[in-house]
């Protein structure tokens, strides 16, 4: 049981994107992409950087596949998956003051 919940099995999927917003159509595509990944459970981390907690590599792969299906025709999108252990080693600052990294989502597991 504990093997399923260790920090090397739990994953975070991070989506970085830089999409054009020059035309009205570009802005609509940008907004649609952002809303679609948020509907899939991604949360804003920083401007144009969204992240999602996943309980396993298989779950992370499913969310990566969904994001790939949502990719707009123009722009630059990077999808990165890292372990919970790696995510926990991240240092986040607001100015020179360190701030706490986001907490892992809690999940109820039924047997």
Oligomer: single chain
Straight-line N-to-C gap: 11 Å
Overall pLDDT level: 89
Beta-strand proportion: 25-35%
Largest beta sheet: strand ordering: 2-3-1-4
Tell me how many strands there are: 6
Share of helix, binned: 25-40%
- The H/E string reads EHEEHEHEE
Number of helices: 3
Structural class based on helices, strands and sheet pairing: alpha+beta
Give start-end ranges of low-pLDDT stretches.
none
Rg, Å, rounded: 16 Å
Shape type: flat
Question: What can be said about the biggest beta sheet?
Answer: 4 strands, antiparallel
Organism: Flavihumibacter stibioxidans
Protein name: CRISPR-associated endoribonuclease Cas2
Pfam families: CRISPR_Cas2 (PF09827)
Binding site for Mg(2+): 18
What brief labels describe this structure?
111 residues, alpha+beta, 4-stranded antiparallel beta sheet, two-stranded antiparallel sheet, 6 strands, flat
